[in-house]
Amino acid sequence: MKIFIITDLEGVSGINGRKADEVGNKIINTDAACRLLTEEVNAVVEGLLEAGADEIHILDGHGGSNSIQIENLHPAAELFISGGDLAPVTYIDSSYDAALQIGAHAMMGTGNGVMHHTFNSHGVVNMWLNGELIGEIGIEGLQCAYFGVPTILVSGDLAACHEAKAFFGKIETVETKTGISRYTVRNYNPVRVRQKLKEGAKKALLAKSDFPVKNLNGPYEIKVQLMCPNMADNYEKAGAERLDQSTILLKSDDFLDVWAQRNGWAPGVHNKKFNIINGNSNE
Predict the structure, then answer these.
(1) Residue ranges in 61-189 assigned as alpha helix (H)
(2) Which terminus of the chain has a smaller tally of CB atoms within 10 A, N or C?
(3) For residues 90 and 61, is the Cβ–Cβ distance under 8 A?
């Protein structure tokens, strides 16, 4: 079985943060944070191997895609690092059997969500997909669903796990900590968390047929409320509809195309560049 893992950093046990500029997040003790993330990923890999996985690919999904210590990564796993202006918006395709999200956090505005934000803690107030608030957990799940791949497990703080259950319905979750406010948190012991991650990953993969592929019918509209009017300028230049000085609207009949537009691609260009047609990659 071929498995895809998407990682973030804020939702790992022991990861702590502070306000960077009265708005955005800043993770402290980054060396320890990267080590703790890598150890959580390795625990998940162990569980997946015990459940029969034979090919495991990981996307380093935090910030500049430079958070996993590849020298300490489990030898059974391979690592995607995303960088450059021509990077695809997702590295998954229809050849995978299941997906997991490790180290997830809640969307912007979640009161007890540890370092909660939606893709850009310094720039995004809120994001809606087809009129419903959505965060990174939902978007990443839909990227996998686009290729027919179910998300079977999400780990992160308690608020992130609640968000995952509300979005997916049927999902295995592993809680790593409980948020009191954005930067105040009760971390669970990392050793115990890693054991739960190993057990949870094994359990989820053995029962992967129980987890449905999240379905969302088009057409698609993504509305993004930005923190400053100037942040909307480049979206408008690329063809987005500007609803007001700080809010833009993107539209497409194809989910991956509308998400690519949010990442700066002109309509239709991303999927053509990477030869993606109706949820399939021909590369």
Answers:
(1) 136-146, 158-168
(2) C
(3) no
Q: What span, in angstroms and rounded, lies between the C-alpha atoms of 62 and 234?
A: 23
Domains of the chain, start order: 2-119+136-210 (3.40.50.10780), 220-281 (no CATH)
What's the gap between Cα 32 and its chain centre?
Answer: 21
| Residue 84 half-sphere exposure toward CB, CA atoms < 13 A | 6
Determine the 3-state secondary structure of 62 from DSSP. Answer: coil
Q: Which two tokens stand for residue 174?
A: 């592993």
Helices 190-206 and 30-50, interaxial angle, to 10°?
30
CA triplet 50, 72, 33: central angle to 5 degrees?
105
Q: Locate 173 and state its tokens.
A: 């979750």
Q: What is the pLDDT along the chain (283 residues), one digit of tens a residue?
A: 999 999 999 999 999 999 988 889 999 989 999 999 999 999 999 999 999 999 999 999 998 888 999 999 999 999 999 988 899 999 999 999 999 999 999 999 998 999 999 999 999 999 999 999 999 999 999 999 999 999 999 999 999 999 999 999 999 999 999 999 999 999 999 999 999 999 999 999 999 999 999 988 999 999 999 999 999 999 999 999 999 999 999 999 999 999 999 999 999 999 999 999 876 654 4
Q: Enter the DSSP assignment of 17.
A: E
